[in-house]
Amino acid sequence: MLNKVKQTDLFCDYYAQWIAVYKQGAIRKVTMDKYLMTQRWLQRLAPTLRLCDITRITYQQILNDYADCHERQTTMDFHHQLKGAVLDAVDEGLIEKDPTRKAIIKGKTPKEKKIKYLNQFELHKLLSELELGPEISWDWFIMLVAKTGIRFSEGLAITPKDFDFSHQSLSISKTWDYKDGGGFLPTKNQSSVRKVQIDWQTVIQFSELIKGLPEDEPIFVKQNVYNSTVNDVLSRHCRNANIPVISVHGLRHTHASLLLFAGVSIASVARRLGHASMTTTQKTYLHIIQELESKDVDLVMRSLSSLT
Length: 308
What we know:
308 residues; hpI Integrase, Chain A; two-stranded antiparallel ribbon
């Protein structure tokens, strides 16, 4: 297909074709959607720009225009998605020189994102409010996420086979495609494939709950599931318990926060959450880490003052 492309073709048309050739079927749908969004923005920002007219200045102008209404990290992602196509066009001789060289990434100042999570007392009130009957329900799902910190899509994909009761662990190796009709999908990244230790009480409870269930079928999914379905159940329980209303993702934050306050290392928390690196954990829970550092300083000063 690319052999038919000419230097006078529109950049947005070339990019659409490049996505179809190199990305379609090779990447996950959620990633493909991002490339298609980039394509739509390119069509909006540079509808008449031809391949032969792309220079460092015209490329930088596209980035600047995009950055006017996006944060810097989002602009960086936009740049990376365009750059792959541009460099291929340079290799094909459709563009003379690499216009992405020394590109400057700008963007709006990101809004301060304050993550919502519960403290230990509030979590205890929530768990006491759950109706944990003899059959699998969303209340059981909420309890499991609170105790493991797994992602929503990871929780939906859990099958009886994933439990290893003798070793008190839960294997996370897949996700559930709840956004697009169901079915198993790979995890978010390779680091997300992990074994999460579970407490003995959860072991006893789930060993009874999953008895007789099909080994390879998800235990929580019986029909189409939406994030809002479980969040509505969780919100109702939060209101009944008279605690702040959080989302299922907020339960993941709650789990991580409690571990950090309990003194669990950032490395261990990162592995348990399935983060690609400790940097992700540090960025996400910076405010908690700063609180802990303040406590450490107080502890150090008290220790030093006792050295008399």
